[in-house]
Each structure stands twice: as C-alpha cells, then as structure tokens.
Amino acid sequence: MKQILMLFIVGCLVSCGASKTVRDSKKVMKGNWTLNSIGYSEKGTYNVTLLNDVSKACFEGSTWQFVPNNNTGIYTINTSGCETGDRNFIFTIQEIDSQTGLYDFLLKPTNEKHKSETNQGFRLRLASLSDTIMQWQQTVSVDGKPFTITMNFTKI
C-alpha cells in the first residue's frame, strides 16, 4: 500500500513540472541571439510596430538574451536612428507539440514604458529551434485575414 501511495505521489510531482520537451527547448534557447530578419506572409509594404515598441527596421539586428531558469530576458535595440537600449521581458511557455518540441509562448515586456501603456503580452509561436537558429511567428489579423510575421534569429 505504501509503495502504491509513493508511486502516486511521485507521478503527481512529475506531471506538475515542465515536460522534458519544454526543458530541452529552454536549454537550447538559453543564451544570446541576434534577430537577423523579419518577414511577412503577404507581399507589400507594411508599417509594423513590433511588441508595441519599434519598427521592423529597428528590430532587425537587435540582440536577445534568454534566461530560461526564471523565464526572463533582455532585448537590445542598437540600430542608429531608433530608440536604442535594453528592454526587459518575461516569457511563459505553453507546449503544443511534444513530437517536435515546438510551442506557443507569451512574451511580456516589463519595462516601465510598456507597463504604463498597455501591460499586455504577445502570443508567439516557436516555429523552429536548433542549436544555431530560431524562428518565431506571430499571426495577427489584417483586414479580417490572417497575417503572419516571421522573425529569424541566429545564436551568437
């Protein structure tokens, strides 16, 4: 009886923690990345402000640091002519496919600028992740149709 109870308790504790897929992905995500390029699912010229912060041109070339053990990070805008500097954020992972290890996550800026404006987060999809590249996708609605923004990173 004690063995069954102990097995049940261990099973509950294991099921409450993050899955192995998410833990492994966090290990790969950990560290410093550069956001190299941003693309759109539709052809055309768009005036997009990402994460309620700055334009696509300002985000390209930005550096990102992920600290998965406490789900925090910093991205730095360093393009001249843009509002440069560090921006802090937190992220929460929600697994969607245990076979591929890809998931949705919520990225929430924590700088005072963002807190006073909307205090909102941004739902993003991890479309691909390896030891050297990462791709995020955010789908929004434009004129009632889905519009996907793709962000391509390389590990520094």
UniProtKB/TrEMBL annotation:
InterPro entries: Kunitz_inhibitor_STI-like_sf. It comes from the Bacteria. This is Lipocalin family protein. It comes from Snuella sedimenti.
